[in-house]
Design brief:
By secondary structure, the chain is of the alpha/beta class. It folds into two domains: about 1-50, no CATH class; about 95-255, Vaccinia Virus protein VP39 (Rossmann fold). Helix content is about 30%, strand content about 25%. It has a seven-stranded mixed beta sheet, sandwiched between helices. Strands 1-2-3 form a three-stranded mixed beta sheet. Helix 3 packs parallel to helix 4 and helix 6 (about 195-205) runs parallel beside helix 7 (about 225-235). The chain is globular. Bound molecules: S-adenosylmethionine (SAM). S-adenosylmethionine binds next to helix 3, helix 4 and strand 5.
Length: about 260
Amino acid sequence: GNYVIDTTKPVIISAYVAEDHYSQQAIDEITKSLWHLNQIRPVGVPQIREISPEDWMEAWKAHYPIIHAGERLVIKPAWLAYSPQNNEIVIELDPGMAFGTGLHPTTRLCLDAIERYMHEESVCLDLGTGSGILAAAMAKLGAKQVLAVDIDPVAVSAAKSTVERNGISDKVQVLEGSIEKATAQYDFIAANIIASVIIELSPRFQEIMSDEGYLVVSGILEERYYEVALSLTANGLKPVDLIQESDWIAIILQK
Ligand code: SAM
């Protein structure tokens, strides 16, 4: 949703689909979402070429820039050099196959919310941590402790290496699993997961939030906003802010 494409010239869009996610249905969904979100219509049948995970990682590395998010955060790919300016906080990443490069609006909305709503010394939960990018932002912005969980073992190992790379292992614990691993009262929770999962988990958030705590839910397409907001408010949470980038919405809530 972020790129302006010169429609007077032919454009090739290549989409990488992990082998275990590949199916004709996945290809149809990508084609459909490109059309719905960006009015990009395929001209002919998509071409499919198999590439190894190693080639995939090298291919996208070539296009992964240094990203600025919120007021102070800088996401730096591990293989690029950067000298921080003034009060900037640098997170070094090599997400590999995990989601969470900082390139996607849903991640940037969370980074923005963390900067604005997370207080220093907060006890935090990063639900669906992916590369560990949000957990790293929480720790580097002064959280007391962070629990990062993900159901995907690939994400868990990427998040663990993000934690080591950024020297924050004294603050961040990474576990495979989901909300059942959350056993504390959290002052700040980030959940950048798709709408259906947020709806499914919505009865649980209130129980694990401290009285003044904040929850940010992201990964919500505009068309599913009301459904997600209704499910969270029906479960005792009240929205205090809403932030949006292109078609993606993040809601910030309290008890
Ligand atoms: N937090 C990163 C970010 O903001 O860029 C990654 C977000 S990515 C959109 C969503 C992550 O949630 C994926 O890594 C996925 O494996 C994980 N996930 C999906 N369903 C989950 C669930 N029920 N519990 C925990 N993690 C889940």
